[in-house]
Design a protein that fits this description.
It is flat, with a radius of gyration of 29 Å. The chain starts with a strand and ends with a helix. Helix 6 packs antiparallel against helix 7. It has three domains: 43 residues; 93 residues, Receptor-associated Protein (Up-down Bundle); 235 residues, Type II secretion system (T2SS), domain F (Receptor-associated Protein), CATH 1.20.81. Strands 2-1-3 form a three-stranded antiparallel beta sheet. Strand 1 and strand 2 form a beta hairpin. By secondary structure, the chain is mainly alpha-helical.
Length: 399
């Protein structure tokens, strides 16, 4: 695990400077500076800052896309990689990003390969690192970073599309919760304060009153405070949440199951297209792309196919034996295997499954939105009927 070290060193010209270096230990940090001809006078591990409430503390996918895109443009224009990284360091506004880019540049100047330096400092995901390895080996770093940028752009747009699709249902749920909070804390308690002593309340009214007594502002405040606290613990990795297990549980719901299945396949196919286009060998591309899949059965099926391909079986033959894959997938892979144009075939498959994913999203939202409205209507209707029965019950009392 890389740690941050605050180093003070003296340049050959005699000027004393300070720098933050990412390294595994103090020896590695000192060695990096010595390789550049500097004399280290002081080194200490940088203490972790107190937890701040800034949620965008780290490096986002948008930052990675900007870096890859800018590096592609700068290298294509004739600038050397170390000069391009220096320029990005000087223009970056995030301190964490500056430190990582500086550490990568130090590695490169010390004789390390670009891909190895990026992998060591964990700037890009493993899929992107493989693209850079291939691009560097054939002397085309600008193309490699361009492919990385396109891959990251796809991930960003996919996430944005999902968020945009869920905005209206989220608003409906939020409005419904706000309505219930208002009714249970301001309307129902005042109503029953008038009528509960006037006589025996009907059973539905008792149930509503019991819920109102539990659903009060203090309990709601504590609940949301716990959610916020849990989110902060997860954000700063104080606790680990098994997201794969949660995804498996959610993925068992029929409508969501088909939606997630098409999402997984579209991501896999786009990753395969990007990597094959970059020159990554097929088996390695499958392994790295399968790591992006959350569905255990689908991921295991693709990983198991690697061993079959290594035995000498044709790609089309291996994938045709995977029952979980749709017919369109195996049919097009057969065409790609025969024509030797698998990269374009996987792009075609990405477009097909992406369209199916969007259709599934629309179908899911078409059912979700009225379901929320009907559910809220039933709750509000039950409350109103309970109030009417209470009024009628009190009206029947003989004074």
């Amino acid at each position: 695990m890389l740690k941050e070290y605050q180093c003070t060193y003296i340049e050959p010209s005699g000027i004393e400077k300070k720098v933050v270096i990412l390294a595994r230990d103090t020896k590695e940090a000192i060695q990096r500076l010595k390789e550049q001809g500097f004399v280290v006078t002081e080194i200490k591990e940088k203490t972790k800052k107190e937890i701040s409430f800034t949620l965008r503390k780290g490096i986002t996918q948008q930052d990675l896309y900007n870096i890859a895109n800018q590096l592609s443009i700068l290298i294509r224009s004739g600038m050397k990689i170390d000069e391009a990284l220096n320029l990005l360091v000087s223009t970056s506004k995030k301190q964490k990003l500056k430190e990582v880019l500086t550490a990568i540049n130090q590695e490169i100047r010390a004789g390390q390969s670009v891909a190895k330096a990026i992998e060591k400092n964990k700037l890009f995901p493993s899929v992107c690192v493989s693209m850079i390895y291939v691009g560097e080996s054939i002397g085309s770093l600008s193309t490699a970073f361009d492919n990385v940028a396109q891959y990251l752009k796809f991930q960003i747009e996919l996430k944005r599309e999902i968020i945009n699709s869920l905005t209206y249902p989220f608003f409906l749920i939020l409005a419904s919760i706000a309505t219930l909070i208002f009714m249970f804390n301001f309307i129902i308690p005042r109503f029953f304060a008038i009528f509960e002593t006037a006589g025996k309340m009907p059973l539905p009214a008792k149930f509503v009153f019991a819920v109102a007594s539990v659903f009060n502002i203090k309990i709601i405040f504590l609940f949301f405070a716990f959610i916020l606290f849990f989110f902060l613990l997860k954000q700063y990795k104080i606790i680990n949440l098994d997201t794969q297990k949660i995804t498996r549980i959610i993925g068992k719901i029929p409508l969501i199951k088909s939606l997630l299945f098409y999402l997984e396949l579209s991501r896999f196919c786009y990753s395969m297209h990007s990597m094959l286009k970059s020159g990554v060998e097929f088996i390695k591309a499958v392994k790295l792309s399968a790591d992006l899949i959350q569905d255990g059965a689908l991921r295991d099926a693709f990983l198991a196919s690697i061993n079959e391909i290594k035995k000498g079986k044709r790609i089309a033959e291996v994938y045709s034996q995977i029952a979980i894959l749709p017919d369109i997938f195996t049919n097009l892979v057969v065409v790609g295997d025969e024509s030797g144009n698998l990269s374009e075939i996987f792009f075609e498959l990405y477009q097909i499954f992406n369209d199916r994913f969007k259709t599934a999203i629309r179908r899911f939202l078409t059912l979700l939105e009225p379901a929320i409205i009907v559910f809220m209507g039933l709750i509000v209707g039950f409350i109103v009927i309970s109030l009417i029965l209470t009024v009628m019950n009190v009206g029947a009392i003989k004074f």
